[in-house]
Amino acid sequence: MVIEEYFDFSYPNEIRLAGHRINIETILVEYLDGMVPEEIAAQHPTLSLEQIYATITYYWRNQSKIAIYLQEAKELEDQLRREQDLNPSPSIVRMRQLRRQQKQSRVIEHA
Hints:
mainly alpha; Arc Repressor Mutant, subunit A; two-stranded antiparallel sheet; 5 helices; about 65% helix; elongated
């Protein structure tokens, strides 16, 4: 099997494991943070060890290209997080209000 057959390249700026909604950065960030493939497999039970090793192999074969891909994915994630912080959904606003109320209740109880 050709290594690229493990992946789905049909999404712009996104590489997914074939047949999954998991992006390769999910695997690679954990790997680059020091997790071994068996630990990654335990975190993602729908993936086989073969798929995880294929992702790592693809990274090592295309390290400079994937390093750019990972950096761009990180920048996009950071941008989306900032936008979400500036424009939270109604459910997030409500959860934040509840947290503030809980904190206030604890302060009053301990006073």
